[in-house]
Amino acid sequence: MARALVNVPKAARQGEVVEIRAMIAHPMETGYRVGPNGINIPRDIIRRFACTYNGEEVFSADLFPAVSANPFIAFTLVATTSGTIDFTWTDDAGKTQTASAEITVG
Amino acid sequence: MREDPLRVHGLVGRRQFLRAGMTGLLVISLPRWAVARPSLDEAIRTFTGGADVLDGRVRLDLPPLVENGNAVGITVAAESPMTADDHVRRIAVFNEKNPEANVAVFRLGPRSGRATVSTRIRLATSQVVVAVAEMSDGSFWSSRASAIVTLAACIEDLS
Amino acid sequence: MRALWGLVGIIAAVVCSMAIAAGIEGSAKRSGFDFMTPETQALQADDMSNPGMLWVLQGEQLWQQSEGRADVACAGCHGDASQTMRGVATRYPAFDEATGRPIDLAGRINSCRGERQQAEPLTPESDALLALTAYVTHQSRGMPITPAIDARLAPFRDNGRRLFQSRIGQLDLSCASCHDDNWGKRLGGSVMPQAHPTGYPLYRLEWQTVGSLQRRLRNCMIGVRAEPFAFGAPELVDLELHLMERARGLRVETPAVRP
């Protein structure tokens, strides 16, 4: 199950700039750590984060191992129309996890 | 980059050979990433494609004293009207001393409303962090800040 | 509401300090939260930035999920955790009739899994066990720690106090050497806190994940170069009994964030 927390205001005025926050459970294993057995722990990170607003990509990020475990990203969007804001996190293996939230724009 | 101690061997005097040998030992005793990563400036040049980077229009908030380098909250804010004609296209964050110079690249646009992003980053040690914003006119602006990372006294033995 | 809990806490602390001398007295008691930088405090204070909330969220999902041969969820017996689990963590560890010993919350969750759900126990420090423990403890957030008055627990709590005060390891330090006698002073770059278990399971920046009180206690034992007790060892539960008595009156913070 995806363990993600996304924060989108339930309602906004048209044209209002709203703050979006997204956090997902992920170790963001850097590939530079050594395990107790003396062998390098293989890299495993979220490589890309994307946010779409009614299907159109409005924000994205490329992440590197210097982003903390359980990556947290906050940004802003202009509330245009009521609809769905979707979030996608893609890891090194190409596996994706998703979350979404509804916004009502009046 | 470094002199190759094997090649230097036959060509130079003893002192220089010893110095080169010591350098070689130092190089092989360091983790691979310590010699492999590009410098901060090289990483920024790769991002900008060699374009000039101007000071200003970007603010980077980074706490000056960090309790634990595993999660350091940063905020980057660029001055921009964020209209279709004049907006921030990308914001990139770089570090000076981690194994890799890149931290994150954020893509924004007029639908962002404001050019402000926050995230949490890892800092392996006390160092400089740089934020660079690419504007829609192709110009690059940056801001830098440094943080002192204190080390915890009692850490679990995973090393 | 907050003021009311504060008052309850103060009364409880006064009662406690009259009953037994448990290290740090009433008004001097401080949560580890108070020793952190404003940045780390902000990380804990806002549920949308507190990474520990990811485990609470997972715990909420697991609470509803049917498990084991009995095919029953925690919610199947206990219903709405926000009602039925409220305040429970403030009284743990509790006396377990079946074993005649104190049991901590994670132990209770696993014994419930075995007896009621007929499921395999969750391994110590697994995300699932931490998530369920964090979710249940979170239902008591803001409430003062009020250990149960149960005479059967007394000998175990006494043993916990004895362990807390016993010097161990190559550094020959007891828990009390740092956390009773020298709290507030610096050890390297860090301020030594009073070691009150107010926020477990908690998100530790050093761990980059959520961990249990037992992980933290083992961490300290390794720190003083002693052989740590195994996860689930009775000694760790006895220590928790003493720590909870010592923290009486402080408020539950789960999921806390610590450096």
Automatic annotation (TrEMBL), chain A:
<feature type="domain" description="Sulphur oxidation protein SoxZ">
    <location>
        <begin position="9"/>
        <end position="101"/>
    </location>
</feature>
<dbReference type="InterPro" id="IPR014880">
    <property type="entry name" value="SoxZ_dom"/>
</dbReference>
<dbReference type="Pfam" id="PF08770">
    <property type="entry name" value="SoxZ"/>
</dbReference>
<protein>
    <submittedName>
        <fullName>Thiosulfate oxidation carrier complex protein SoxZ</fullName>
    </submittedName>
</protein>
<dbReference type="InterPro" id="IPR013783">
    <property type="entry name" value="Ig-like_fold"/>
</dbReference>
<dbReference type="InterPro" id="IPR014756">
    <property type="entry name" value="Ig_E-set"/>
</dbReference>
<dbReference type="InterPro" id="IPR030995">
    <property type="entry name" value="SoxZ"/>
</dbReference>
TrEMBL record, chain B:
<protein>
    <submittedName>
        <fullName>Sulfur oxidation protein SoxY</fullName>
    </submittedName>
</protein>
<dbReference type="InterPro" id="IPR032711">
    <property type="entry name" value="SoxY"/>
</dbReference>
<dbReference type="InterPro" id="IPR030997">
    <property type="entry name" value="SoxY_para_1"/>
</dbReference>
<feature type="domain" description="Ig-like SoxY">
    <location>
        <begin position="47"/>
        <end position="154"/>
    </location>
</feature>
<dbReference type="Pfam" id="PF13501">
    <property type="entry name" value="SoxY"/>
</dbReference>
<dbReference type="InterPro" id="IPR038162">
    <property type="entry name" value="SoxY_sf"/>
</dbReference>
From TrEMBL, chain C:
<keyword id="KW-0479">Metal-binding</keyword>
<feature type="active site" description="Cysteine persulfide intermediate">
    <location>
        <position position="220"/>
    </location>
</feature>
<comment type="function">
    <text>C-type diheme cytochrome, which is part of the SoxAX cytochrome complex involved in sulfur oxidation. The SoxAX complex catalyzes the formation of a heterodisulfide bond between the conserved cysteine residue on a sulfur carrier SoxYZ complex subunit SoxY and thiosulfate or other inorganic sulfur substrates. This leads to the liberation of two electrons, which may be transferred from the SoxAX complex to another cytochrome c that then channels them into the respiratory electron transport chain. Some electrons may be used for reductive CO(2) fixation.</text>
</comment>
<dbReference type="InterPro" id="IPR036909">
    <property type="entry name" value="Cyt_c-like_dom_sf"/>
</dbReference>
<keyword id="KW-0813">Transport</keyword>
<feature type="binding site" description="axial binding residue">
    <location>
        <position position="220"/>
    </location>
    <ligand>
        <name>heme c 2</name>
    </ligand>
</feature>
<dbReference type="InterPro" id="IPR009056">
    <property type="entry name" value="Cyt_c-like_dom"/>
</dbReference>
<comment type="similarity">
    <text>Belongs to the SoxA family.</text>
</comment>
<feature type="binding site">
    <location>
        <position position="216"/>
    </location>
    <ligand>
        <name>substrate</name>
    </ligand>
</feature>
<feature type="domain" description="Cytochrome c">
    <location>
        <begin position="58"/>
        <end position="145"/>
    </location>
</feature>
<dbReference type="GO" id="GO:0016669">
    <property type="term" value="F:oxidoreductase activity, acting on a sulfur group of donors, cytochrome as acceptor"/>
</dbReference>
<protein>
    <recommendedName>
        <fullName>SoxAX cytochrome complex subunit A</fullName>
        <ecNumber>2.8.5.2</ecNumber>
    </recommendedName>
</protein>
<dbReference type="GO" id="GO:0019417">
    <property type="term" value="P:sulfur oxidation"/>
</dbReference>
<dbReference type="GO" id="GO:0009055">
    <property type="term" value="F:electron transfer activity"/>
</dbReference>
<feature type="binding site" description="covalent">
    <location>
        <position position="74"/>
    </location>
    <ligand>
        <name>heme c 1</name>
    </ligand>
</feature>
